[in-house]
């Protein structure tokens, strides 16, 4: 690479890309925003001008990949498009940072991994909480035995999603499991430091037309080795809740606004004597942390921790949960391949971002 900065194109200019990804590049000193890709001509013009970078349409994606002006792409497209745009980038020897969920299916995840391995490019999945202080410290507290042996994980992650949002469209692989349930699944895995071996789940929907293609909410139970249980509920028709609790044999750890990228996160740790200590973690730029970490992996030829295998494991679990919802039966999972877990070595403390003015975009709740 000719420079000390990795040149990125952000592919997709929806709400999250505009709200969190595009403004994050100044916080990543080893990265540079070099281009955007959008299917909306208004966004191409106005967002391109906002960040002073060239804008490409989807039909020009191949030209961008071949232009020699970028080293990596950050894919922030609807879930159903992740595989195509990853494989095309890999074939042109362009590194890929891809939003979660990694793809629409586990089979697509495997194809993405193979494509990147074939050309030797880096593939990272954008698990921003793998770089966030509160969640990384929670991992250390549990590993060090501060709540005894962890036995129970319970989480609720719900929000309102408006009619017409892509998260409600099945053909774009929208689904509460894919959009927010994946955070609960991933948190249970990094807090238990293991992967589930069996799942059982139910889905439910009210009669609103917005839930004609995807369920309103899903509740799942995941059985982990050592007879530990993790339960979570995710939903698109409820008030905003983002929390988890891990209960051990001698104490418990709770997190409020556990999965947020806006606002402070609060941790409450209760020890074996029943004493509770509260810690507040100020809002940080979690996306800038991802970009900086991935750029470091590219510049120093290191394998990212939340790599394609991390994304594949979560999609495998999601598919098992969907199967359980459809059949009413528990579903066994094959043992997942071992891989590194997130640790405090990956902690970043970057300044929080100011919310930019959005162009033809709105949050899921409007």
Automatic annotation (TrEMBL):
It comes from the Bacteria. Residues 140-253 form the GFO/IDH/MocA-like oxidoreductase domain. Residues 6-127 form the Gfo/Idh/MocA-like oxidoreductase N-terminal domain. InterPro entries: Gfo/Idh/MocA-like_OxRdtase_N (IPR000683), Gfo/Idh/MocA_Oxidoreductases (IPR051450), GFO_IDH_MocA-like_dom (IPR055170), Glc-Fru_OxRdtase_bac (IPR008354), NAD(P)-bd_dom_sf (IPR036291). GO terms for molecular function: nucleotide binding. This is Gfo/Idh/MocA-like oxidoreductase N-terminal domain-containing protein. It comes from Gemmata massiliana.
